[in-house]
Each structure stands twice: as structure tokens, then as C-alpha cells.
Amino acid sequence: MTRPLIAIPARFSATTSALRYAAEVNARALVEAVWRAGGEPAGIHPADTGTADRLARFDGVLLPGGGDLAPSRYGATDTHDTVYDVDTLQDAFDLDVARHALASGLPLLAVCRGLQVVNVALGGTLQQDMGGPEREHRHLVHPVSLEPGSLVARAAGAEKTDASCYHHQRVERLGRGLRVTARAADGTVEALELPGADGWFAAVQWHPEDTADEDPAQQGLFDALVRAATR
């Protein structure tokens, strides 16, 4: 059986000494989680043209984590000192991928920055900084409550899970049509879904790939994406 092809937008990296040059990369743990689920992961080059045609050959999309979106993308007129790794091309491409995937019904799993991209693509906003080291969710594993019956709860096979997080921003105003289906104890939005979407879609603020090799609940998110992409 042919593995469904899962597009993963690449991330620009300036620190890839083994390759001798700057590169476009994806986390190995993320790629392996898609492979374990039965998918064929394929990194795709960020470009500013032809997104719809490029996505047409794929069976699903995984929007991964990464640096911050430019605050101007969601209407902010200032930039917090902690905003980092902003890239104009990366932002434009990720937003375009999110919009085309949702509009075409292409199965889509969005992770960390990916969740924020989808929220902004649908007109939402972000809190640029959660309040410093004592409030941010970096290098933190914490329990998350999942809405019973939601896509994320069904994929995880649980209504509570331990989430591995690495972010200092979070959803402020929800994008059009989005519904919150998981929160952390401090109220941070941890999962989003789009009721009535043409295709399977779920977004999580944490990094399920961090522990997917040993936690069936986290691997279940990748399994659900690949199952949707197989149909």
C-alpha cells in the first residue's frame, strides 16, 4: 500500500554544520512520528507562488513549530522585545498553506507555531509574550484537559494528556469559526478545531512529537492525520 504523502513546510536554519551551508529543515522527531503513523513525510520549500498547485499533489499537511510570526500579520503596530526569528517569506508561505489546506479540505495538523499560523490566517490575534520566564511555556510539560468528543480527544484516546511545550506566545483573539478544544490550567489555548471544516483539521499548541515515540496519546495525533489523508 502506498503511503499517503504529507507535506511539511520546511524551516530556515542558519546552523547546520554537517551540511556546510544554511538549510531548510524539519525536526527529525516530527518526521519520524509521521513515518510511524504510516505517512510519507515530505519537506517542502517555502516559496511565494503556486501554493495551491503545489499542495494538490499531497494527501495531507503538517504545519510544524518554529519562530514567531511578524506581529504586523495580525494587525499589531508594535513588536515585543521577545519576538524572535521572524522571516517574511516563511510567514507568507505558512499562512498561504494554512488557507489553501482549509479551503480545499486537505487534512491538516498544526503544531505550536502552526496553531498560531492558522489562528492568524483566519483573522485571529496573538499575545506577543505571555509575561516572561515565570509565565511562558518553554521547556515545560504540563497537563492539558481535552474537550470530550473533540477530534484531539478522539485522536489521543484520552480527555487529559501531558503536553510538552515550548512557546512564549499564545492565542489572544480567536480566528473566524475556530473553537477551543483544550486549555492549560492557566487558561492558555492548547487546541483548536474548525467545526464544519471540509476536511480533517486539528491544531495543538504543544509539541506532540517530543514524546510521541513513547506516549500513544501524542502519537495518536499523527496517526489521525495519516488516517484522514488515506481516505
Model description:
- The structure is a single chain.
- With 231 residues, the protein is an alpha/beta fold.
- Helix content is 26%, strand content 26%.
- The protein has six helices and 13 strands.
- A hairpin with a 4-residue loop joins strand 11 and strand 12.
- Helix 3 packs across helix 4.
- It is globular, with a radius of gyration of 16 Å.
- The model has no long low-confidence stretch (mean pLDDT 95).
- Keywords: Hydrolase.
- GO terms for molecular function: hydrolase activity.
Unreliable spans are: none
Mean pLDDT: 95
Radius of gyration, CA atoms, in whole angstroms: 16 Å
Helix content: 25-40%
Structural class: alpha/beta
For the terminal residues, how far apart are their CA atoms? 13 Å
Q: Tally of extended strands?
A: 13
How many helices? 6
In sequence order, what are the helices and strands, one letter per element? Answer: EEEHEHEHEHEEHEEEEEH
Overall 3D shape: globular
> If strands are numbered along the chain, what order do they take across the biggest sheet?
4-1-5-6-13-12-11-8-9
